[in-house]
Amino acid sequence: MDHAKLIETLRVPEQSRGSLPLELNAKALQAWGEGLPLANLQETTRQVYSLLRDANRLQIPDKGRLLLLDALRPQVDYISGALTRGAQGHAHPLPAKVTRLVQFNQELLTEAAIGYKIIAHRILGKRFLFGGRERQLADALQAVLHYLGRIVLESYRTYVPFPEGLWGEIHASYALAETRRLVKLKSEGFSEQGRMTLGDSYNRLLLLALASPYHFERGTIDLLHQRLSEWSSACELKPLAVGDDGAMHIVIRLDSSAPPSFQVLEGAAEAVPTEVRVLDAVALLAVLDDEIERQQSDHPPAKRADGMPQLPTPVLRMLHESWSGPTTRGEARYQGEVPVQVAIGLNAACHFLTHGHGAPDEPAKATAADEVEELSLAVTERALEMAPGELVSTSERKRDRVAEMLLPQAAAAAWTEMRRQEAPSSFTCHTIDFSASGCQLVCAKASELTLSVGDLLCIGFDDSASGRWKIGTARWIRQRNGEETQVGVRILANEGRAVLAGVCDETGYVGDISDCILLPGRDGVTLLTPRMPFAIDKMVFLQDGDEECFIRLGANVENSSRFARFEFRACSEKEVARIQAERNRPVAHLSKAQLEAMERGESVEKVLGSGSGVWDGMRHDW
């Protein structure tokens, strides 16, 4: 590798003669830091950024520059954290104000990295390193990896593209450390409490990129980044050996600006490229296997020994798949720009599954989406209709008309009417490509559509009211060119049926009614619900049109911050009989005349007699 070219890859601005408005000694820097108005974030940010930027463009002795960078580090971390919090939690496309926060955070971290790159430039310009300069170079290069890695992490957290040339500088920092045999050294300030060597810091960024964090929600990205501080040491970065060509490797080209990727290298049987490295993740995959096995044991730990939450088992499986090799698609993927309608959220999905988005009498039109429909129907799914008698209807178990006062039909009807009055909106997007299990969408910046990873989507491949709405989730989001938002969608089902459901206790008392969806699938029908209060083994009252039934939720086959998806079974005759007995208990002892009087509309208190004490007992039972 060309050593001079690697040094040039670490971009630094030109320095000129001049002076800063404060002396570069420990006492003066401490006084300056104590005088910052931390309660005024805007002013603190202005002062810190201005000082850092000015220092990076002045000729300053290395000792003074290091003192300044060390003194500014707590403030840089504080401001960057505040900017990160301000930019998170927003749907895409990001508002202009939030986009400016993201860009400024990248600029702040870039300036922090530039300070250490200047020091690395000066040391690398010397042929021999004496008097602790080797340690200074290792510290400076690991600090550069730390701040450039923060930019990578912030890009993933906010689902925005990397700044141009970022990965080229990351690769060059590692290559320069490797050339000077510094990859096994640890920086005191940037080694994650002494755990990570310079090589481990680089490996963590490689693994993070390979994990496709755009596919994860923000909390998962943060937790994964923390766990990689432990896992990165389980990987080994090696030069490509003779005879390794023709096999699939995790390939890193140290002279490129591309992130790591799986590649089959050709032509390396005789001449081995010196700039190519391969990442051996076999030991890390074994660590993941052990963790998955622990979580699937009879008594899985809720938290780790250090109190940190566990990465969920589905995430661990996705990581194992990402670090094992490129994912092969099970279905053909077709390129094509097809206009689609997109609605977001469980309530909106239920509305459009029921009503569509066109006029009820509008005839179905033949569109380019027909090809999508034909392709999607190739997926084998169990029919959504359930066999007669599979669910026990409560209508067959009513004691009498008075007991209907205790059933939740009125609440369900009120909920349905309220949902009709709140007609949600759908938005027009276009597909880039599509398959039976997913598609890629592009949403124009002018669209009012806002998305977050994990959102439930209802996607209409037809502009008529005839249906054809698919249910999916936003698997990843990427802001493209600052003008469009690109979304990866995983299709859960090609159809669905909107129902009403509410969690109930063992007596059949139903709490809040929620919009839910019955989804067909290869392994049977599942129920898509809000995340709370639905849970495993809960009894649920389900209303599907005029049919009512009680079901018991089974395994939670999918869970996100927006929804949950459960297997379920019908409650048995015995369970329904017990519920109905509890419902009828307040009126079971009433005479026929009293029941008829109540049906005519006379008040219960009048029929029973307010002084008899029976009314108070019934109110307690109800």
What does this protein structure show overall?
39% of the residues lie in helices and 18% in strands. With 622 residues, the chain is an alpha+beta fold. Among the domains are: 3-190, no CATH class; 334-380 and 424-493, Beta Barrel (Thrombin, subunit H), CATH 2.40.10.220. It has a 6-stranded antiparallel barrel.
Task: Give descriptors for this structure.
six-stranded antiparallel barrel; single chain; disordered C terminus; 622 residues; 18% strand; alpha+beta; six-stranded antiparallel beta barrel; Thrombin, subunit H
Kindly summarize this structure in a few lines.
Helix content is 39%, strand content 18%. The protein is α+β, with helices and mostly antiparallel strands and 622 residues long. The longest helix is centred in the N-terminal third of the chain and has 29 residues, at 96-124.
Question: How are the SSEs ordered, and which strands pair?
Answer:
Layout: H1 3-9, H2 26-34, H3 41-55, H4 62-87, H5 96-124, H6 133-158, H7 166-179, H8 198-210, H9 218-231, E1 236-239, E2 248-253, E3 261-264, E4 276-280, H10 282-295, H11 313-324, E5 334-335, E6 339-344, H12 346-355, H13 370-376, H14 409-421, E7 427-434, E8 438-444, E9 456-460, E10 469-480, E11 484-493, E12 497-504, E13 514-519, E14 526-530, E15 539-544, E16 547-559, E17 563-570, H15 573-584, H16 592-599, H17 604-608, H18 614-621
Antiparallel strand pairs: 1-4, 2-3, 2-4, 5-7, 6-7, 6-9, 7-8, 8-11, 9-10, 10-11, 12-13, 12-15, 13-14, 14-17, 15-16, 16-17
